[in-house]
Design goal:
This protein folds into two domains: about 1-30; about 50-60 and about 95-205, Beta Barrel (YmcC-like fold), CATH 2.40.360.20. It has two helices and ten strands. The chain has helices at about 1-25, 90; strands at about 45-55, 60-75, 75-80, 85, 110-120, 125-140, 145-160, 165-175, 180-190, 190-200. It has a ten-stranded antiparallel sheet with strand order 4-3-2-1-10-9-8-7-6-5.
């Protein structure tokens, strides 16, 4: 009788353990995503977004497309952004900041503070200070396709040396499989700016 009780106990324990493991694997909120590394990028990868900025009165301030592409310059991987080419090794270099843009690894429920000081081409200095929270990790559909993505919200203020000050509510959808964001919205008082990935190409998927 003790033998059968022992076997029943073991079977019950194994069933519980397997169930917990399956639930953990099927629960996207339990996933952690590490920062991409240099080896994750391939020459020929290209991301294209459409963007549009509109005031609450319907005035269009920006409307167009933006692209980034991975190239090789003398054997060194670089990312072309506009007229600039930035070495990928610098992009994936861990950010040494207590208030980073992304606090790796990414995980649903994680919170941190994001702060950034910047200077525009005309010399205007600005500051961005926002509280960040990762709200979810689920399938998101954009024009480029459907991808698993983190929804990351940034809420706070943007100010500059010209006296501008506005509450800023930014939401980024970051897709680990693409190593980039697939959607972005920013609300600043009377202005709404949106970006959406419309094309992604990769030689490894051709």
């Amino acid at each position: 009788m003790n033998y059968f009780k022992y076997n029943y106990h073991i079977t019950t324990v194994l069933t519980v353990v397997v169930t917990l493991l399956l639930n953990s694997c099927s629960n996207p909120n339990s996933i952690e995503t590490k920062q991409p590394t240099l080896s994750d990028y391939t020459v020929g990868e290209k991301w294209v977004w459409k963007y549009k900025g509109v005031t609450t009165e319907g005035v269009v301030r920006s409307d167009g497309e933006d692209a980034r592409e991975i190239v090789s310059v003398d054997g060194v991987l670089g990312m072309v952004i506009g007229t600039d080419t930035i070495q990928v090794k610098d992009i994936v270099k861990p950010e040494e900041s207590e208030t980073p843009k992304y606090d790796w690894p990414l995980e649903v429920g994680k919170k941190w503070k994001y702060e950034k000081n910047w200077t525009s081409q005309d010399g205007t200095k600005g500051t961005q200070s926002q509280d960040v929270e990762i709200l979810s990790f689920k399938e998101i559909t954009v024009e480029a396709g459907t991808f698993m993505a983190y929804k990351i919200q940034y809420k706070g203020k943007i100010t500059n040396s010209r006296g501008y000050s506005a509450d800023a509510d930014d939401v980024w959808w970051y897709a680990p499989a693409l190593k980039n964001f697939i959607k972005f919205t920013q609300t600043q008082d009377d202005f709404l700016y949106e970006e959406e990935l419309i094309r992604y190409t990769s030689p490894s998927k051709n």
